[in-house]
Amino acid sequence: xxxxxLESFPNDRYTEENYWTxxxxxxxxxxxxxxxxxxxxxxxxxxxxxxxETATPNAYNYDDSRGVNAIxxxxxxxxxxxxxxxxxxxxxxxxxxxxxxxxxxxxxxMDSALRARMTAEAKFLRALxxxxxxxxxxxxxxxxxxPDPAAQGKLPRDTRxxxxxxxxxxxxxxxxxxxxKYSGGDxxxxxxxxxxxxxxxxxxxxxxxxxxxxxxxxxxKAAADAAKAVIDLAGAGYGLFSDYRSxxxxxxxxxxxxxxxxxxxxxxxxxxxxxxNRQYNTNAPLRNIVDAYDMKxxxxxxxxxxxxPAKPYENRDPRxxxxxxxxxxxxxxxxxxxxxxxxxxxxGVKKYxxxxxxxxxxxxxxxxxxxxxxxxxxxxxxxxxxxxxQNEVSGPDxxxxxxxxxxxxxAGLAPYEIPAAQTQATMRQLIRHExxxxxxxxxxxxxxxxxxxxxxxxxxxxIYNSENQPIVKRTFNRDRDYWWPIPQTQRDLNPNLAQNNNx
Amino acid sequence: xxxxxQSHVTVSGIVKDEKGQALPGVTVAVxxxxxxxxxxxxxxxxxxxxxNNLEAGGPYSFIFTYVGYxxxxxxxxxxxxxxxxxxxxxxxxxxxxxNQVVVVxxxxxxxxxxxxxxxxxxxxxxxxxxxxxxxxxxxxxxxLWVNQAxxxxxxxxxxxxxxxxxxxxxxxxxxxxxxxxxxxxEINPDFIDNITVxxxxxxxxxxxxxANGVVLITTKSGKKGKVEVNYSYSYGxxxxxxxxxxxxxxxxxxxxxxxxxINEGKSxxxxxxxxxxxxxxxxxxxxxxxAYPNVNWFDLVLKNGILQQHNLRFSGGSDNVLYSIAVGYMxxxxxxxxxxxxxxxxxxxNVSANISKRLHVGTSIIxxxxxxxxxxxxxxxxxGYYFTRLxxxxxxxxxxxKDGKYGSSVFATPGRNTIENPLMLLKEGSNYHAPQRxxxxxxxxxxxxxxxTYNINLGIDKLDGYARSxxxxxxxxxxxxxxxxxxxxxxxxxxxxxxxxxxxxxxTLNWQHDFKTRHHLxxxxxxxxxxxxxTNATAHIEGYFDNTLTDLDAGSLNPTANGRVTKDILAxxxxxxxxxxxxxxxxxxxxRYDGSSRFASGNRWGLYPAVSAGWRIDKExxxxxxxxxxxxxxRASYGKLGNQGNAGNAAGDLYGYLNTxxxxxxxxxxxxxxxxxxxxxxSDADISWETTTAYNLGADASAWNGKLxxxxxxxxxxxxxxxxxxxxxxQGGGLAGPVTNVGxxxxxxxxxxxxxxxxxxxxxxxxxxxxxxVQNKVISLNGESIISTRRTTRAGYPIDxxxxxxxxxxxxxxxxxxxxxKISNAVKPGYVKYADLGGxxxxxxxxxxxxxxxxxxxxxxxxxxxxxINLGYKGLTxxxxxxxxxxxxxxxxxxLAMPFNNGAGVTKEWVDNSWTPQNPNASLPILTTATGATxxxxxxxxxxxxxxYLRMKNLQLKYELPQGWLSRAKxxxxxxxxxxxxxxxxxxxxxFDPEKNIQGDTFxxxxxxxxxxxxxxxxx
Lengths: 503, 1020
Description:
The complex is a heterodimer. By secondary structure, chain A is mainly alpha-helical. Chain A is 42% helix and 6% strand. In chain A, β6 and β7 form a beta hairpin. Chain B is mainly beta. Chain B folds into four domains: 89 residues, Sandwich (Immunoglobulin-like), CATH 2.60.40; 123 residues, TonB-dependent receptor, plug domain (Ferric Hydroxamate Uptake Protein, Chain A, domain 1, Beta Complex), CATH 2.170.130.10; 564 residues, TonB-dependent receptor, beta-barrel domain (Maltoporin, Chain A, Beta Barrel), CATH 2.40.170.20; 49 residues, no CATH class. Chain B has ten helices and 53 strands. Chain B has a 22-stranded antiparallel β-barrel. The relative contact order of chain B is 0.11. Classes of the chains: A mainly alpha, B mainly beta. The interface between A and B is large, with 113 and 87 residues. β1 of chain A pairs antiparallel with β33 of chain B, so a sheet runs across the interface.
């Protein structure tokens, strides 16, 4: 019996030796880099982004889905939170795929323009994954070569600054090579605008109080310039979609407002937004976010004459009605009460779900059966990023007012203009407030309250349900909780990984 | 010459065995007129004996006795003076344990000549017991740890570990049926004649897959003689041995849940059930039991299980043809009220014939067609999934609404987003499995010149494993308002088929020779080739209008298909030499050279040598002619055994050395799915065989004609280059770790078996007991350690040792909390207190974190033991078989093992035994939900349980009808019997049967069953 007779190779997968041969295979490898976006630790899973909101005063996660409630309570450790483990793992999955792509694809004969674009896409994605790691964990081992566990497995953490530097480099290189737009089946790939907008987000995080305690203006300037570059990006055609409610419905995916989406399609590649929002209610809104919505005249409930404490849900910012469900609201053909159908706080989330007032019996009760894309970056975010950074650079100049007012106008506030003569400080509060309301339940607020160093205030608080009854008291340790712990499993495997402070 | 001499007679003779070989050491006694004379002699080396001076007269009789042979008496000799009498005696071996023939690799051996550590099981000892899978029959076999996790109809096979746990991957022994690799659970146990387990280097003849031991199953064959017809029938009633003791009282449940939420820090305003709701429920129970039920859900979904087995065999044979044809039928309706019905239809044919003086051919065919059902929901482990749901049902769930629809629950319970009505999940939809497996073997022996025999075998093992399921459209209804609650609006149908063809081909040349000088030589050489071709395909479709049409063709939306074809090849060369001198000195050497397709070229081949020796001390001249000791033998063996990491046929195991780029990493651009590919796992191209070096030292003794027998073995098995998927740091790729050759594990231990049997008149009894001890210890792991959630594998400790925080009680006061290291800032009085044992610098650091974990407890039992008591009086026998394990820990988690886990209920132990300020010495911490107070439910010694148990595995009372009655009816034998299986279990483990899936730390299992059965066994 010869050695040859013992040969057996798989028929359902390639090997590294026979894979990197054609343009088609390279294309599929890049698709694999995008696919990591859908992992539960990144922006996929059932509803990672919706649950992240529950680590903020906006919402509450009754059954600790993915361990986010532990973070909300300030009881997270290096072992007890799924999301803390999963984000580390899944961002690294994405990084490894991008690195492998960048290492292996150059040798494959293919169209050079396409290769250049794909290389830029991979760099954009690598920047996204590394950006996410540094945003939550701080410095991480910076690895840019194809996966090689023997060489890379024991590397210690690099500084966050070094990681950020690489992220910005990748984004600059990506922005230089990526097209402004795609057509047909390529819509959804990373664009020049996406690279620039992500750069703005990264720089804004750098400029913010958490990472810029001295308030260095250069950092704010860099962030403002980056956001401005997106606003001014000729030919990209970014704008605000007219209707705030339907912006979050499948019909309006890839609108003028969308800068970078995580794609979803059922039944193969869906998310569970509808199931989570309607049935699970594990991102149940809290009284605190309800109170944060202004009145429809654009002023806070504390000052607006429209506010009636007996009818707290009347005359609010139109975005309130387009984002959530409250007791007395009509939801799927029935009037809601404080305990039904949303028993946890009395509130439910509408945004990113197809369910609204209209009755239907076709209620999705299966995971992975929703197909609304998740907008990781939308134009309203760029506008408010610009406003926030520019206000720090120059105070509330006209461009700051304009950026914020554009968002308020689309929201349907009347009047939508911010009263004139705001100080830099009051404008800062207004912009922060605008971000909170505009992006409520979209998963950005957790990082916002961290970078503003507000978490130690707003997260050390009792949370309340729709009846203003206390639910539980949360804590936030300012000396520990601004950063996530390095997962213990990884420190077991690589003892060179230092732990974050006080974990 | 003298007159004296004249009156004496010389009697001489020779004693031979049936084969004509001289028998030395045979005792020849002489009796005159029935009276013993003192003049016994023994035969010499050549089998000769001589009496020189017997007195003339008579009648004389000569009695020949020899251990292992039937005594012979030649009587009636009248000796005349001067006469010379010459006797020729042929002695026949008796069939005792000592000279029983035991099946070994590629041949047979007389038990008495074995040099290896081999356990045998005569299946007659399991006759009439309600064993449904052959693996269950191995309970109690010396050196084995047999663990049957649950009695799921159709899937109730046990796991078998031979002499510990040798590797970190697949630890299942290689199983061969009539010499061909086969699944131990795909054969009717009634078809098995005997089972041999090769535990040491004696398995090395199977080389590359022998490291976990080898189980050789021999099926029943015909015997020369008139046709014999045997029929047996048994009827059994089954019930779970143990279920969690759940708080079913709805009011108590709601109050406890609310209290748990308050205890963990929730505001009393934010509890799950308001006082008004509880009051409403109390009042409603009297008036509207549909909306406000007070039921025990376990009672609702459980019933008595029924197990019936019929077996019928025709056997017989002539000088040239032997045959045995059997059919069997099993019908098992499990303890759930639906979705657990199994049938088995079995066929066993054994025919062999002498075609000519030189050519002998034969065939054995085992057909096993089974069907079984499972609940519709839950995919590949639907029954396991069902138990995750059943252990999550709440006492306030309504079985039915008033108008007979499936109920949901009158109150919403936060965290219970889906109301799984366990009755609905059992009764609706379908999940049907129909695996059909056939093992067909044909073989031929051809006698070549010079005593050489050529043997050729071809075995075909064909599996057609079909399954289909239909997940129906299901809605539950609020029992009060009637509001519908969709459970599943997306009916789907799934069909699965696996089609496996395993070909075994082997051939041997045998040469046996008995030299005149009492040297015996037996030489065998052979080759073998195994090929495993596996195919599977799944089709899934949705879009059914309703639940009436369930075929794939009736669906319309979202069709998906999956499938794979794999090929796995093994090629081998092997040989064996047996040498013995006078059956006194025994020597065996084997060599096997194996090649596997699972490794890269260059790492494919492995060489597995083994030697063993035995010494029959009782045959030594210096041992004298003891009449007490029948056997005293020393044995020693050494050999190398291999394992290729055969973790079933998952494709990843077959191509573990290849760095593959996996497909299916898809992404949608503009709502179009684009195919994606990615490396998801890192592979080690250099992997090769793992090797077990086995040492064994044994002694067998038997005395008083087998009335007392003792067998002792001490062993060591060192497994090196263990194949194991290792975790690698996720940084830089998040890849799954490679399967790689890591480290070494030692299993050292001993086994002792004692048997005593005796007859006292019509009363006979036997008792036997065995104990096996094994110490499992990882020797090295290349400096790494493997940590899973609550287990670790690391040098110096057993495989999968528990790795836990050390619980040191319960916090009694806030002051104590404040002054202690704690696991989080949520810790309160009543919470579990952990010891601060270490820190980054090895010293306690005031924090409870990963540095404080300690190794505590083992997933592998230290002791396996069993004992058997058999009492017989005339036709009546009573047999009690006990079996136990000692020195194992279990770690039950989640639903019903922990309180209110993820929206589940709670067990009664939490009613009185949980901590309160008034009950500071409670055995359990303060009542909280497991999900809301994770601090208490961290992997810790607090929840580690002793999983040791002793159980009365079987109790059988049997009555054989007297022959006198039967002969008139032309019936050879009739036995009626009653059995009890798993009647008694002694254990400290609470909540579930301790014989459970050890690694699955949950109660999500079909329960173990207690069986009462009755039956009849008739032979014509």
